[in-house]
Amino acid sequence: MAQVVATKLLHSSFFGNASIDNQIEKIKLCGIGENNYQSPEVLRKGSSSVGMWSKPIVKRKTKIVCTIGPSTDTKEMIWKLAEAGMNVARLNMSHGDHASHQKVIDLVKEYNAQSKDNVIAIMLDTKASFGPEVRSGDLPQPVTLASGQEFTFTIKRGVGTSDCVSVNYDDFVNDVEAGDMLLVDGGMMSLLVKSKTEDSVKCEVVDGGELKSRRHLNVRGKSATLPSITEKDWDDIKFGVDNQVDFYAVSFVKDAEVIHELKSYLKSCGADIQVIPKIESADSIPNLHSIITASDGAMVARGDLGAELPIEEVPLLQEEIIRTCRSMGKAVIVATNMLESMIVHPTPTRAEVSDIAIAVREGADAVMLSGETAHGKFPLKAVNVMHTVSLRTESSIMSGGTVSRLNQAFKNHVSEMFAYHATSMSNTLGTSIVVFTRTSSMAVLLSHYRPNGTIFAFTDDKRVQQKLAVYQGVCPIYMQFSDDAEETFENALVVLKNQGMIKEGEHVALLQSGRQPIWRFQSTHNIQSSLHKDHMTAPVSLNFTIQAKAYVLSNLVEPSFYRKTFNAIPFYRLTMGIAPVSLKNQSIRAA
Ligand SMILES: Nc1ncnc2c1ncn2[C@@H]1O[C@H](COP(=O)(O)OP(=O)(O)OP(=O)(O)O)[C@@H](O)[C@H]1O
Ligand SMILES: CC(=O)C(=O)O
């Protein structure tokens, strides 16, 4: 116990009252202010930082989603993006074809197969026609639209002239009225609807610009009539199932129905693919809660959201969507325009840097790059900026020993309680957490509580490893488990040490629990804190035996109170101990 108290003091003095010197040291470690391009190895693995007994590795917690396109669809670029910090590769089905996406999927799988300590998940964005994605048609060359000029959209196929272009949606003429404001490319250009005929909509250009092929069209304040899932969508979904992608990003979801439909299809074909609705439609906002409840997370798709709704609503909705996902323990991704200027410039605007920092502070699991990596000039620099800004921001929001009180409803299960207390313990001790999971559930729960240290999630299932790639703070690692828990713990520590993820003298909290027990008997859970070097002379062990009812009660009380109060009540067994580990003789001795 003396050890725990001592660490707590050290810990709070670092995170709570960091000296100017410490702050400057941290800033240097994060690379901000030095204006230097960091090596991919340092970028991905993280930097050493001041910690407790030793210096734990500080890894970036917020994940990075990169859209793959013409700038990045080669083996060389996929490798470089992965080493620079990409965690999820996104394929936008609105562009390219199955053959080009297949090539990227194969490259990502090739990367994963040869990588010892990194994994890239694949997200298929079923954008094409899942919802009312209205786009203008192909043009032989870009058309310049000047304010005041007349321009026509038609539902006739194959039209692409300087004053008229096709739209891909037959009900377009029915959905718009004279007086509506049409937004092109999320508002880059706007046109006022003047009149319509049976097959065409005549407009006057309000804000002009350069109209290119296949641009988004939105009507300000309106959602288009929702078509059901089309043939093209099913084709893309099947393509995703055949290729065992990890996530679907589903466009223009307006209610939970489409999610249920997709989930039941996936169940019928035995596909374990996470469904992430893109919140981008005005109609989705009243149904936010039910949509996210039915899904595995959500994406704040700010491009279309800011076109369908007044642009000033976007930051508020971003906050609300993140908060809703966080309260349910679901993954949330913030997308679009995050480093837009880096499509053509090598450095970001200060506003873009702040935008990333805000998403990180609000608690996003991941931030996304679109055109920046798909067709930009500086895709690697954009990932570099996202990495350093996220890491720096994260270092300023470490919570010390306390775990924020999250949605009460979330902490009503033993596993949730366990994740909560494991987080509290690792924060107090200033350690990383090593968790063993077959289903991902305990790693996801830990991520939900946002521990200060990295969550090293060991799994013996590659699908689970890939799925975990999007969750904040989780470093997923594939490893075969042995029948012997102690041997598996030991193997995991050796892997971490060999990969340079933990160091001699560093403490880690070992945790095994979750909905599918690995080595534990039903209803027993185990957290232990290990010293990663045989230099602790007097191991201290705290054993608590508590009642099932007590778990529910302890939701309401602070951990310290809970420790004192439930010490003597028998039933479940929760072990918190300090156990010395020696890497030299490869043995772990439980205290
Ligand atoms: N697979 C691809 N093949 C060719 N170009 C692509 C591909 N993916 C993306 N792009 C290009 O990168 C741009 C940005 O990608 P993004 O995924 O943001 O698509 P978008 O159509 O602009 O918008 P949204 O994200 O709403 O679908 C696209 O407009 C397109 O020009
Ligand atoms: C990502 C996306 O589709 C949007 O922002 O509209």
UniProtKB/TrEMBL annotation:
Keyword line: ATP-binding, Chloroplast, Glycolysis, Kinase, Magnesium, Metal-binding, Nucleotide-binding, Plastid, Potassium, Pyruvate, Transferase, Transit peptide
PROSITE patterns, A to Z: PYRUVATE_KINASE
Cofactor(s) recorded in Swiss-Prot or TrEMBL: K(+); Mg(2+)
Reaction equation(s) it catalyzes: pyruvate + ATP = phosphoenolpyruvate + ADP + H(+)
Family: Belongs to the pyruvate kinase family.
NCBIfam families documented for this protein: PRK05826.1, pyruv_kin
Protein name, per record: Pyruvate kinase
Taxonomic lineage from the root: Eukaryota, Viridiplantae, Streptophyta, Embryophyta, Tracheophyta
